[in-house]
Amino acid sequence: MSKIATPEKTSEYLQRFVEGVERRNPGELEFNQAVFEVAHDIFPYIADKPVYHDRQILERMSEPDRIIIFRICWEDDDGNIRVNRGYRVQNNNSIGPYKGGIRFHKSVNLSILKFLAFEQTFKNSLTGLPMGGGKGGSDFNPKGKTDSEVMRFCQAFMTELHHHIGPNMDVPAGDIGVGAREIGYLFGQYKRLTNQFVGVLTGKGLEFGGSEIRTEATGYGAVYFMDSMLGFRNDAVDGKTCVVSGSGNVATHAVEKINQLGGTAVTLSDSSGFIHDRAGIDEEKLAYVKELKEVRRGRISEYADKYDATFHAGKSPWHVPCDLAFPCATQNEISKADAVALVKNGCIGVSEGANMPTEQDGIQIFLDAKIAFGPSKAANAGGVAVSGLEMSQNSARISWSEDELQRLLKDTMDNIHEKCVTYGQESDSYVNFMKGANIGGFVKVADAMLAYGVV
Ligand code: NDP
After folding, report:
1. Whole-number Cα distances in Å, 12 to 25, 26, 445
2. Which of 249, 275, 300, 335 maximizes ligand 1 atoms within 8 Å of its Cβ, making it the mutation to test the pocket?
């Protein structure tokens, strides 16, 4: 095809493309969902840019460069041999080394990691930094495991993974179930196996090459992004009631930044339910949550035993009336019904701290209601942006100050916001940030791929 495509032809090509992806990736629901979300915006954009069709750019982007799957054997504290499956999906390294987190969760499978690696490719491009897209993990369930079991698992995982990563090849980071403790064990084992102290992981401790505000960056960035979206409408986070899901790294730092910007966060959750604290989760209560989750590894329900709050078992917080929503737990946590409830109850903005937390028909509800909707690949890019800056600091063997990094994070989120406005503003001036992020992320990777020829 080399002529400009009509709208009818464009939907026919999109349909054919989607069918092809589904045929090649049967049963991989999350991966197919992520590719469709992107393709839906890219096909109309490239309708008058036939070179992208001719060179099959989106087809190539949606087929990972390679996938490594391996067995992980480790011994638990009782001497039992345990077997898990490990993965690394190296999706696309056209604009830099593969970069993306490692997830340890019992639900991990190939579809989830392929969707995350695909999304990561666009997100990393949006940051403006030279990073390709990848993702990895294991179906290992860290819940209830002792420190030494987690250490032995991480060492066994890295024993295989170290063959496939490196500071100029693939630089993993944390994700669900992989925080400072796990990154320390993983980095320690990489160093032992290779006898090299290099920036092969990000999210490291400050003592061994980590960067200031990397831990905070994803949650902070998601709130900055919301503030930019609202700023575009002459509004701000200040004074707003916010619902937040999750109680891990992204959620707690989102609450921290909401507080700093004058908002009030009234919910947090985990996989057992959510707490609702009408008075707001202030600094002291947040310090309690961090200790509860990071040190004691307890359940969020304990919050309601300690403070004047209610606990809602097995529920998510989307039916609590709010101005702003920050989903920061996991994928597909906001259904269509949840989205309808949010809009009906007066929510004017959603910024996705988690990856792909809103189901496709939920997104449509937000777009139809024309609320400020910040999709994950834009809104949560702050984490990987500071990871990119950690890589730069490691290469140059320097460390930047916290103030400098705060400024760089804020600038990055503002730049991503601007890119989304450039590609996503519609004729009635509503900004479709989903479209803006998809096209804004696509262009740089696509043009690099064109430059390489057929590889
Ligand atoms: P954490 O492991 O620190 O926290 C995850 C939180 O989400 C926990 O409260 C956990 O509850 C909850 N959760 C996980 N799975 C489910 C589920 N199926 N149902 C309900 N709650 C669930 O992870 P992060 O905060 O790092 O990551 C959260 C999200 O943000 C993920 O989507 C991740 O991909 C995304 N993200 C993270 C980045 C980072 O820098 N860490 C960067 C960009 C995106 P419980 O304790 O009960 O499991």
Report:
1. 20, 21, 24
2. 249
Could you report the per-residue pLDDT of 150-175, keeping only the tens digit for each?
A: 999 999 999 999 999 999 999 999 99
330 Cα nearest atom in ligand 1: 32
User: b/e map of 7-22 (b: 16 or more CB within 10 Å)?
Assistant: eeebeebbeebbeebb
Q: Residue of the nearest CA to atom 36 in ligand 1?
A: 354
Nearest CA to ligand 1 atom 34: 355
Q: Output the pLDDT for position 160.
A: 98
Domain boundaries, the chain: 7-61, 66-197, 215-374
Which residue has the least CA distance to atom 27 on ligand 1? 176
Pocket residues for ligand 1 (CB within 6 Å)? 174-177, 179, 218, 246-251, 270-271, 328-330, 353-355, 380, 383
Domains 66-197 and 215-374 in one fold: yes
Q: How far is the CA of 298 from the centre of ligand 1 (A)?
A: 15
CB neighbours of 319 closer than 8 A, spacing ≥ 6?
338, 341, 345
Q: Is the pTM of this model over 0.85?
A: yes
97-119 pLDDT, tens digit each: 999 999 999 999 999 999 999 99
Please check whether the domain covering 215-374 is classified as CATH 3.40.50.720. Answer: yes
135 given a catalytic annotation:
yes
Assign 1 a pLDDT band (cuts: 50, 70, 90).
very low
Task: Give the per-residue pLDDT at 3.
Answer: 72
pLDDT digit string, tens, across residues 281-317 = 999 999 999 999 999 999 999 999 999 999 999 999 9
Residue in 114, 135, 285, 419 annotated catalytic: 135
Cβ contact 87:114 at 8 Å: no
Look up the CATH number of domain 66-197. Answer: 3.40.50.10860
> Of ligand 1's atoms, which has the minimum distance to the CA of residue 293?
46
Tell the residue nearest (CA) to atom 15 of ligand 1: 330
